[in-house]
Amino acid sequence: MINKNAIHRKRIVHLAEGNFSLRNSKMTTGVLRYGYHESVAVIDSQYVGKTAQEVVGCGGNVPVVASLADAMKYRPEALLIGITPTGGRLPEPMKTLCLEAISLGLDVYAGLHDFLTDDEELVAAAQKHNVKLWDIRKPPKQMPVGGGLCRWAKSYISLMVGSDCAIGKMTVALEIDREAKRRGVKSEFVATGQCGIAIAGWGSPIDAIPGDFMAGMVERDVMSVDGADLILVEGQGSLLHPGFSSVTLALLHGAIPHSLILCHQTTRKEISKIKDVPIPPLPEVIEPYIRLASPFRKPELIGVCLNTSGTSEEEARAAVAEAEKTCGVPASDPVRFGAGKLVDALIEHRRKLGY
Amino acid sequence: MINKNAIHRKRIVHLAEGNFSLRNSKMTTGVLRYGYHESVAVIDSQYVGKTAQEVVGCGGNVPVVASLADAMKYRPEALLIGITPTGGRLPEPMKTLCLEAISLGLDVYAGLHDFLTDDEELVAAAQKHNVKLWDIRKPPKQMPVGGGLCRWAKSYISLMVGSDCAIGKMTVALEIDREAKRRGVKSEFVATGQCGIAIAGWGSPIDAIPGDFMAGMVERDVMSVDGADLILVEGQGSLLHPGFSSVTLALLHGAIPHSLILCHQTTRKEISKIKDVPIPPLPEVIEPYIRLASPFRKPELIGVCLNTSGTSEEEARAAVAEAEKTCGVPASDPVRFGAGKLVDALIEHRRKLGY
Questions:
Q1: Which of A72, B167, B294, B336 has the highest CB neighbour number within 10 Å of its CB?
Q2: What DSSP state is assigned to residue A40?
Q3: Is the pTM of this model over 0.80?
Q4: What's the pLDDT tens digit per position in A36-71?
Q5: A193 Cβ neighbours under 8 A, 6+ residues apart
Q6: Which domains does chain A have, with CATH numbers?
Q7: What is the pLDDT of residues B25-53, one digit of tens each?
Q8: In this complex, do B246 and A208 lie within 8 Å of one another by their Cβ atoms?
């Protein structure tokens, strides 16, 4: 069983020095936007005196400060390294800051390729000050092989899938989770990538897990919240992306969902970074997902989520109408138009299946 | 580029103490049967004086000896740990033997979960004696993401796929490779699991590689032998096995094969260790493979390989005839009836495609 409370209710200060932006500090902006725990300050000396909202458009009045010392008056309990240095290594100035945070009694969380817990000096300091180091991308030592166990889950499970990678599958799941919770539905977001894990405070970085155990870890994480009304599993990659399709299939065969929500970016016409592979019409995109899952449980497509960023509202509304017509299910851009329709569809499908 | 000559032409002594059998020393029996390099002795004190052929039915006159000291007269150049201790760890007596082998100037090869190269004492000894430690299951530090590059390979590529895991996909590829080479076809076997790698002397343990890089490593390995007449990619798992399907898909989207050879064990009716998932008729088994590969290159099913072990010859012949009828392609049990038909089909398909 997962410790779901890994960083539950911690007050977080974000390290985003020199890189606080929607593009360069995805983990920080994700935690600010959806934070299941509280953000108290962001460190980036170039924006001192501004609020997070003013810099990245989310995070409300969370202040941007120049240093960890300046952040301490907001009583943080943990430092989150919300930026990834080139190559994912831990540069010396960042390590110095981690040691400072530890000595001040803060936990340190990071999604780097270099693990904090592989650094003897950091480990010794954390022990001395009785704080926790959390490597978000580090797989556990013991992992299970997938056994199709989610077929016997008591909860209703929905998986986000996509026409390509990096189109907003995590955002869709989080928007639906937020709307479901607002309505009093006992919903659980299962994070499967490092940003999602930083946001939720738990989960497994499936893309960093060896092939034999990917589906098993998804299964374990889903079953750890079995009993919820609604389990929303963050998607990764796409069956159409040859580099990441294996991660995608591990999610499908690990979670064995009752329903799928298809995510698509309306301006994307070809698979990213793969020459000459056009994205087919959405009904063709979804078909192999249903086919591959069917030996275990046939899932139903119950909604389409469009990422319409970079298009006008008129174009976005037209795209939503078109998707509803071609796929025969409710569609929305949940960031632009809200996730209400998707939550309606999930509740209705769950009821229909008798959960 | 891979160093294909990692253990090329080494004279190997196998450590199989207490476990020399078809079941318990798969790596050793694989190397004995298909050895692309030479086996000179097997250590297992319970069978001293017998030949490998007498104990496991392959390996010819390779002698079984009681100890490494006894094996030295056969002038081995490398020790292969051909058995896996419970839990995959390196027990102390085995480590002592490794140190002895190193001091005698032998390389040491192992497919353990505990890596030889993580043991400071073994590393120091290997450096001192100028020998190589090879951890067959250890992924490299730098790995690529798959980019669909095999679409531009100059070689004809065929991938073994299966109705389930552990039904003989590696054996099929090796039997076809052997028969192709016998006919003078420049064939390359691309190993994707630890036994195959031990046999071939190179390859990547795809099931031990993190999700983001699985397809990329397959792609890199296939492209490293581009130029061959025929590239045969060892299969892993099955799209029907929820625990291992992601590894299977990484092979399909990494290798982007021109053809598929479907492997099936005739006595297997349900997916192994997964409750209530019957194996569908073979044409239904193959369909999702073709569908998932098609955005990159539509592969053709060109043969069926049946593992008929445990059935009578009459039953085996009937099963082969039935598979040919339902699938419309040549079928065989290559171990029982030879791989000739499959090589014929591969050569014919390659010619048809103009390679």
A1: B167
A2: E
A3: yes
A4: 779 999 999 999 999 999 999 999 999 999 999 999
A5: A170, A203, A205, A206, A207, A234, A236
A6: 11-135 (3.40.50.720), 149-352 (3.40.50.300)
A7: 989 999 999 977 799 999 999 999 999 99
A8: no
CB contact (8 A) between residue A243 and residue B277: no
> What is the spatial distance between Cα A80 and Cα A98, in angstroms, rounded to a whole number?
10
Neighbours of B129 (CB within 10 A): 15
Q: Give the distance from residue B204's alpha carbon to the nearest chain A alpha carbon, in angstroms.
A: 12
Q: Tokens 């009578």 label which residue?
A: B312
For residue B118, which residues of chain A lie inside 8 Å, CB to CB?
A: none
Rounded percentage of chain B residues whose pLDDT exceeds 90: 89
The whole-angstrom separation of Cα A81 and Cα A199 is 13
What's the burial of B148, exposed, middle or buried (CB within 10 Å: 0-12/13-18/19+)? Answer: buried
Chain A: residue nearest B253 by CA?
Answer: A242
Q: What is the pLDDT of residues A150-160, one digit of tens each?
A: 999 999 999 99
Tell me the residue ranges of DSSP E strands in A234-288: 259-265
In chain A, where does DSSP find H-type helix? 26-34, 52-56, 68-71, 92-103, 120-129, 169-182, 194-200, 214-223, 245-255, 282-293, 313-327, 334-337, 340-352
| pLDDT at residue A302 greater than cutoff 60 | yes
Residues B216, A243 contacting (CB under 8 angstroms): yes
- Out of A209, A240, A277, closest to residue B210 by CB: A209
Query: Which chain B residues are Cβ-neighbours of A291 within 8 angstroms?
Result: 288, 291
B212 → chain A, closest CA residue: A207
Q: Which two tokens stand for residue B293?
A: 């590969």
What distance in Å separates the CA atoms of residue B355 and residue B335, rounded to the nearest whole number? 28
The partner residue sitting opposite A211, judged by closest CB among B209, B216, B239, is B209
3-state secondary structure at position B272: coil
Residue A209 to residue B208, Cβ atoms within 8 A = no
CB-count exposure of residue B95 (10 Å: 0-12, 13-18, 19+): middle
How many residues does this entry show for chain B? 355
Percent of chain A with pLDDT over 90: 89
Q: Do A249 and B253 touch (CB under 8 A)?
A: no
Residue B298 has a CB neighbour count (10 Å cut-off) of: 10
CB contact under 8 A, A292 and B246: no
Q: Which position has the token pair 């002038």?
A: B75
CA dist B122 and B116 (Å) reads: 7
Largest Cα separation within chain B, whole Å, is 61
Collapse the DSSP code of A220 into the 3-class scheme (helix H, G, I; strand E, B; otherwise coil) and give the result: helix
